[in-house]
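pinned: reference chain
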Amino acid sequence: MSQGDKYIPALGHKSLTPLYDPLLSWVMREETFKRALIKQANIGQGQRVLDLGCGTATLTILVKQTHPEAEVVGLDGDTQVLEIGRAKAAKAGVDIKLDHGLAFQLPYPDASFDRVLSSLVFHHLAREDKQRALNETFRVLRPGGELHLVDFGKPHNAFAHFISQFVRRLERAADNIEGRLPEMMRHAGFEKIEEPAWFTTVFGSLSSYKALRSKE
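pinned: its structure tokens
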């Protein structure tokens, strides 16, 4: 997704962007893990939610559909996918806001959100950008707010272990696959870091994480 501060589309080239939604739906069990992530987030009445790296806004729209009373914002660095997301939101009849920006340079004030959700974003980021994005996420969360993140994680079975050897070469996924994300979350200031669920896909294991910004 980034080379330094340069944005790279999710599939590596803008010409492939129209394939993103069907590919994700077909090979990654997208609806299953995204609905599970929303349930895990336990979004409360009137809370403000950020979908970090929202892509074409599939998760953003699902959050609004399942929690119509929440204020839901999506952010992505790719203007092309944001336009697709806006068209999808209009077709679904949901009121969401989609902003242009980078995960490691969030254009929001401190303590702006109650929940930050993120799906399949962090494996695109270089290690330093992963940490910067987590630091920024911590900053924009209100005290008592939570991060809920699903991405490639440590393999949970033999098949996932085999596939992960290829995935880590194709993307910046080594930190994910070696289980470093929880420690990076702790470094950003998060507490009570858990891995409540994991999912097996044709590209390996996805881990779902939960992390708290303390009320103090």
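why pinned: DSSP finds eight helices and nine strands in the chain. The longest helix spans residues 79-92.
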